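Mods, move this if it's the wrong board.
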Amino acid sequence: MTSNSAELLHRITSLLARSGDALVRGAFGVSYSRALLLRAVSVQPGISQRELAQALGYTAPAVSSLLKEVRLAGWVTVSESSTSKRVHEVFLTEVGAELEAGISETLNTRFHDVLRTASVKEGDLIEMLIRIEAVLGGKKEPDNGSPIMAMFNRPAQRSQRRRDLEIIAPPGVREESFSTLGGIPQWVTIRGQDQANPILLVVHGGPDSTYTPFNSWITAWERSFTVVQWDQRGAGHTYIRSGAPSLTLQRIVADGLELAESLIRTYGRPLVLMGSSVGSLTASLMARTAPHLLSTLVLSNVLAPDSMTRSWTQTLDAARVARSRRAIRKLEQIGPDPRAWTAEQARMQSKIAVQLSRGAPNMVYGLMLPALMYDPALSMSDIRKIDQGMRTSHTALYPDYSSFPLALSNRVFELPVMAIHGEEDLVSPISAARDYIATLVTPRTTFIGVPEVGHLVEFAAPDQFIGHLLEFTQADA
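Not the wrong board. Structure tokens:
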């Protein structure tokens, strides 16, 4: 029977659904529609019911009915968002995550067998289908930063990143291991093309957002520095291995100083210390406590005393310009005073700021999501645990960071300070950062704004970042 392409696609879709349903029912006793729902929640933990309906192409009543069934089975939890009683967030339980992983592996294996038998290249097929989906969805181009795109790209990207991370040692160095800091194992990576280069210790933000998945993005830095990344207690591999015991800002600062002292014993020279986002505060406290360990302090995506206040105001302005009634309503519910916010409200405000950022890479879908999804060292189970750690640690640490311990203290630093910031940053507006940096007393201070970049400037523009850093550090050589 001859067919046009539309009829053929429709038949293939129906066949996929029927064969998928038969496969998962036979192997797991689960319907295909339930399997698709579990998959969507796995890709985007905390997804709302509305977002689930959009992702699955189902009606709201149909999703509500499915959720009731999988919730009763013990596969998901549904909880009311702390920022709005109208929003319900969905998470996989441990049992649900295990079930979803098994179903996905079974379906992927079967589909790969089909493509191999049909002599079809998966990459070419995926690219075609994504473009068709984008046009049908009213977009001129596919959304390359979407969770679904990240999942499709994951196998090929992980292979490429694994190759990117290769280092010849010696003269280079590549170490990935747990070091005992503050009495618990914490994950540390040390990477560089020449062990004689200066040491750059990166203090990540969040305060719970591991940056080690970005190692494959910053290999250019490794030509000029030996780059040390550290998953702090409560974050990344450290959370997976050790959990989040004794989680305070003071404890993290002490852990960081212990790591710095260990690096100096090994390499015999002071460090360039870089703190990003909330990590800019952590690194500043480290520098104030032990300046003799450091040669330079670098602050990116700077957290200033009034960053959150200005972020709320500018984000509300952006919501009004975009005519986003939903964002306006949520921001007004949160209120303008960060001192009254809960950790969940702070998370929501930051999420809205990211969504409304224009003219810059999306911090979540353009940077954090692909970094995690394409990291060859992380399984999907690891990524889910890291997401859990981010929420747990942010809630525990938010009171320490939101009070900004440096706000009323002496702002004298005994070493040069370079600050670098994305000009389109709504999460930590550049105006707040620039005003704060201007109050510091240092031997030498530089503030650099990078156009067309938002939050996480060092990963959105890694080549520009390392260029500015080299220029600043070599000025004192």
